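[job 0412] stage=complex_fold ligand=NDP status=START
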Amino acid sequence: DRIPSKGFAVDSAEGHFHPYEFTRHAIGDNDILIETMYAGICHSDLHAAWDEHQSHGIAGIYPMVPGHEIAGRVVKVGKNVTNFKVGDYAGVGCMVNSCGHCTFCEMDKEQFCENGTTFTYNSIDRYHDNEPAMGGYSNNIVVSEAFAIKIPENADMKRVAPLLCAGVTTWSPIHFSKVKKGDNVAVAGYGGLGHMAVQYLVALGADVTIFDITEEKRADAFRMGAKRYVNVNNAEDMKGHNNSFDFIISTIPANYSPLVYARMLKYGKGEMAIVGLPETATVNVADLALGGAANRKIYGSLIGGIKETQEMIDYSVAHHIYPEVEIINAEAAEIDKAYRNVQDGKVKFRYVIDMSTLK
Ligand code: NDP
Ligand code: ZN
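[job 0412] stage=complex_fold status=DONE, emitting structure tokens
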């Protein structure tokens, strides 16, 4: 039997959120039904809802129910489920299915499944009759237990949801680049993702510099343990960083020059992970050689696999590393307002929708 669900959708890139009722696929033998308690608002939700990935060959699928930072409680389990029982806390991040047997699935990198990852929304679910997947701004979700994350009983549920995307997206490259104690590192873009990166890097014992475009977050930066805060719009502040960082993570969601940061990497050693997904931000490849960034390594990074998402959740809860959140009610107008504020840089640091307030 299909599962009735209700939440919020947009109907076009210009649309506003409105209440939306729909159904989800039935609970298969390996699936669980999660009642959503909290859903985070990621900047990726704005890019998707506003159809800003056309230049990357990704078109918005409408009506769209965004949301890939989902935390809730298990209310039903399929008969072959072994990892979850009714009453457990569970989370869902950016993906809900993959083939399970290709090279990347075997490597626990389901986000690169050669046969097609089903993302949590704005994605065609090839494992369920090609219906469009619907995300977390809704009162429930049905997901294979293989794609559900166990949230420890002692987790702070109000704050845990953003870890499912912002947490793992920053955790993954920090570990891919093997950042260690004493490294000189930088975080460009100090928002939802950026403030998670800062916390993981500080916890590792790295020396953290933050780059952002506002003065409003300078005090927050030091409170979170950063050593330096650079206002990118201040030319004096921007001087003297070239050839100095072992690792940089860029979460910038708007147009910028990645080359500026590539030059800041240590010669022969530094690595830059790009996770921000602006519609247009380009590097002239010849500039990598000629523009002062030769022999630095730059790579893109996409969320993280299910295994590392579980590792990140367990670590974060055990070390009390959480996002700083502003909780909003589950109302269409509130979500619209939150989107404007994220776009305008007016959130510290992540909006989370309290789905229990859904009317
Ligand atoms: P936020 O809007 O919360 O944070 C972005 C931050 O970047 C803000 O603090 C913003 O400043 C700052 N910023 C904007 N322009 C600049 C600039 N030119 N230089 C320095 N800082 C700047 O977004 P999220 O953290 O939620 O997401 C960031 C990006 O990461 C998005 O593009 C999102 O789609 C992408 N993403 C990628 C994933 C992946 O797997 N690769 C997964 C999840 C998200 P201010 O607040 O002042 O506006
Ligand atoms: Zn996200």
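Residues 8 and 19 are 5 Å apart (CA to CA).
[job 0412] exit 0
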